[in-house]
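Hi P.,

Sorry for the delay on this. The queue was packed all week, but I finally got your sequence through. Input first:
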Amino acid sequence: MLVLLPPSEGKAPAGRGAPLRLESLSLPGLNDARQAVLSELVELCSGDEDKAREVLGLSAGLRGEVGKNALLLSSAARPAGEVYTGVLYDALGIGTLDATASRLAGRSLLVFSGLWGAVRVTDRIPSYRCPMGVRLPGIGGLAAHWRKAMGAVLSEVAAGSGVVLDLRSSAYAAAWKPSGDIASRTVGVRVLHAPTRKVVSHFNKATKGRIVRSLLSAGAEPGGPAELVSALRDLGYVVETAGAVTGRAWAVDVLVDEVH
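Then the structure:
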């Protein structure tokens, strides 16, 4: 099982410990592309603060994020599963998984990122601010930058992974789109309010976090979309699906009664 996650906008503050070692990150085939973004982001944020805020789309109240980015090469790094916070990650609760589920999380979860491309939750990274929608002056749009780098790397990672559970938002999904056999093993999830069949917003992220936690805690490693749907139903989720379409990802709806 491979689970594709968006990052969180909010990040935990820097902890204590050694700074980033780019060569230690998973998916080393992305390192040249990572270095390009990292170098330009540090340079941008070490210069004119107003320009950096404009490029990153930050309000005056978030000017501290510019200074954080300027120090990326020296700031303490911590596991990505601790860096990312917010609704989905609170519901997922990586830090409270038991040892078996935690090991499965380390193998299965990939967090997509405007700065790193994609990292495993065990990869040590500093806190940063760089959404996928950013256009850096020397690189351009980050989604296009990562599409060039990710094709072969992510296809290799996904090749023997069984089901690919894609929980990314559209901005991060633009960086890599499964194709061919991988697409046929990919499942996209919507969270719907059962009585109205309307897509929910805040509860959408929380439900997706709970789904991932449930699968990890159960030790589930489904080989394909049908097995994933069965696993989710066994875990108590109400799931609807239109089934397979050759060469395309499955679309699965998880129905919830309460929206909060």
